[in-house]
Amino acid sequence: MKPETLGFFEKVYEVARQIPSGRVTSYGAIAKYLGSTKSARIVGYAMNSSGEKDVPAHRVVNRKGLLTGKHHFEGTNLMQQLLENEGVEVVDNQIQNFEALFWDPSKEI
DNA sequence: TGGTTGACTAAGT
DNA sequence: CACTTAGCCAACC
């Protein structure tokens, strides 16, 4: 493990793997934890390649708690199913009680 | 090497 | 209050 070999993507994966089950976070939160909130797009871009990684990408949503990335999953509701399986309420692609379930890496780690 | 892309966010209309 | 515009930054072609 050479941290210097870890690109932004790998860092995102490392953080995403630490998201507790039944909790969620936002792209911006991860981006901010890695340095800058402005890199939120890069986080999303990274998750796009997380398919082959052991990353719980379904626990990462946008700042509104909306499942914006569900279209990148296999099914149309797979992302929601995974979240509900962990006890997260999801209605109309939106996480219920999002603020309570929100997991901030810069505070929780 | 340079230009395009995007699972975002904040601010403006 | 909902939609539009602009800024951002790393990876990909």
Please describe what this structure looks like.
Its EC number is 2.1.1.63. One of its GO terms (molecular function) is methylated-DNA-[protein]-cysteine S-methyltransferase activity. The protein has 109 residues and is mainly alpha-helical. It is 39% helix and 7% strand. The chain has a single domain, classed as Arc Repressor Mutant, subunit A. It has a two-stranded parallel ribbon with strand order 1-2. It has a two-stranded antiparallel ribbon with strand order 3-4. The chain binds a DNA duplex (13 and 13 nucleotides) through α2, α3 and β2.
- Estimated radius of gyration: 13 Å
Largest sheet: 2 strands, parallel
Count of spatially separate domains? 1
Q: Report the mean per-residue pLDDT as an integer.
A: 91
| Overall helicity | 25-40%
CATH superfamily: Winged helix-like DNA-binding domain superfamily/Winged helix DNA-binding domain
Give, in order, the helices and strands. HEHHEHEEHH
Structural class: mainly alpha
Residue fraction in strands: 5-15%
Name of the level-1 CATH class? Mainly Alpha
According to CATH, the fold-level topology is Arc Repressor Mutant, subunit A
Strand order of the largest sheet: 1-2
CATH architecture: Orthogonal Bundle
Principal-axis shape equals: globular
What is the count of DSSP helices, taking H or I runs of 4+ residues?
Answer: 6
